[in-house]
Fold:
Amino acid sequence: MADLETFRSETRAWLEANCPPEMREPVRDESDIYWGGRRATFKNGAQKAWLEACINKGYTVPSWPKAYGGAGLSPAEAKVLREEMGRINARPPLSSFGIWMLGPALLHFGTEGQKQRFLNEIARGEIRWCQGYSEPGSGSDLVSLQTYGEDKDDHWIVNGQKVWTSYADQADWIFCLVRTDKADKYSGITFMLFDMASEGVSTKPILLISGNSPFCETFFDNVEVPKSYGEDCPAYVGQINRGWDVAKYLLGHEREMISGADGGDRTSGIGAAMKRHAGKLGDELDPVLRAELAMFDVDALAYSAMGEKFLDEIKVGKAHPAQPNMMKYAGTELNKRRHELMMAAGGSRSLEWESEETEGGKPSRSWLRTKANSIEGGTSEVMLNVIAKRILDLPGA
Amino acid sequence: MPLYHDDDQAMLADTARGFIAEEGNIAKQLRHWRDRDCKDGFGHGLWKQMAEMGFTGMLVEEADGGLGMGHVEAGIVLEEIGRNLTPSPFLTSSVLAATALNYGSDDVKGRYLPGLIAGDSVFAVAIDETAKHRPSRITTRAERSGNGFKLTGSKSFVVYGGSAGMIVVAARTSGSDEDADGITLFAVPKDASGMSHDAVRLVDSSMATHTRFDAVELDGDAVIGEIDGGRAVLDAMLLAGRVGAAAEGAGVARGAMDMTVDYLKQRKQFGKLIGEFQALQHRASHLYSEVEIARAATIKAQQLLDAGAPSADLMISVAKAKVAKTARLAVQEGVQMHGGIGMTDEYDIGLYMKRDRALAEFLGDAYFHANRVATLSGY
Structure:
């Protein structure tokens, strides 16, 4: 414990010295988030300085081993760092699907060569990754995916289409589920890694109801994917035809992330903020809205205790392996309710789509964005199926 | 502190689960006493056994003869009581009254705690005066009279008021009805002259009383804590009682859910188990999710209260409200998914529905506590 307190005071001092004041202000729009990659540009010097300081310290991926660009922090130390960053509202220096998704998969399934190369690239923000999972005909039933890699000895020729590929138009590389054996549904998928600059890869952004385009359609037209990128560095994670194991592991991870179990805005009450918001507009909360906000806050604060319990239990292996599905279900449904209430509390002001006062329609665009929460990464209905089968052990589920 | 039971607590949970399932189950206790029209509403034999196991004095300091445990531990016992619908004065006597007596002088402690811990004397608490929980308003008055007090007024929903030997009464010794100050707590013998108890059986077969005080004469040493300074004691009782009721309610929710999920795996219609129908699977999964969250809120509230954290107040109301909503969902889904037999007295699921109704009302329902969450949050 004494060591942890030392770590806390050192961390606090380090943050004080290295986190520029601009990086302690709330994220206002997409340009405030640094995603990294070949084409990335910094919004300002502060963003660059903050990233570089974190890279040198291993703090873009604090719990990864030092050899792969991390700081090798223990879970307790990582929690202290999160708390201390939260205390000064420090922005994450680097956001990426490499950190959230591919990294954990490589740490679990990757070869040493893959870890050395890809994890370090991710930690330094050099390569921006995207995820190729869903297809037009394979949404909830992901395992039915059809994108096919034809075996040509030392390479595959990949043909097919992915959809809902987050930021595919800005990504450098893709981790992608590709069918390599048509005869075996589950054991016929390979988790491939390849360059989005490869010939035959094209992307097309999808305009969403929020007016934003965070997702793309991604097309593969005779894309040549080599089987290896050098010694001990295969172009696939895990084994050929066993990519579904990696995908399942990552889906669990993704559900945990979307659930908001690790706290933040999503798990706190909103009633007091809505009252202040209404007050600024010269309004007051309708008593029935206040009552709904109170009921919501009960659920939100209870869920935040659940998030804390869930993370505590995961650390010691006490959590049910299917529990992330419950967290994802409850957390996303709650978040949708949160934004419905925030829209109601904001009244006609919340309807503004482009005004300066709403920072470009943030309330309405965020509200619409949350509707995807209970669809992406497994729909609420699929989550309920999984709970029925794996936790409640219901027949035929 | 991690939000799960440590090794000692897990061991206690094993012990409590086994013991209460064996001795406190529905057939042996709730139905047994109900079907004999027992006016006490609970079994004294089981209460004695719980005393022998040390449960009755869990929240009493070791120096005063108790186990010096916390609300996490008391909650473990209460969750099993809830799961088995065990009629027991644990919540009133060992949680609410014990919390009050812990504030008493050495004299008060010495007089009442040994009997409470031994299970020889059962305590009830008299707080509410109207049909809804509203502890901010106390109109029952204790006027000074000689060396003591004269108590006048009435209380309702005094759980086990007819079978308890002693009643902890919150009364006003100064100020007006809505004042925070001016409250004093008294330990009043049930059969004191001038007291009358109108016993009523409640929907869940538990027994409560409307208790009237008609110039009941009390000695000065009946006072628990400070004269006029009883609000602090009352608040402490309410925190302990509410978090305890949340734990018991979480047990009711779990018991109803487990019974219902089991039933889905047994009942066949249209040639298959009804648990194969996705319409029911999704509702069961949603219920599971809510029950898990309610339990998490409860243990968080228990830990905060044990740590003496100021935020315990808010989290306890969160837990009480969340559990009330969740247990309500559990018993309603339970009866519906059992179909026609869910409406029969023979099946236990209906008993869960009745117990939830009474327990949720005790010390404030979901509306009361959601309102409290809003007020404490500043809106």
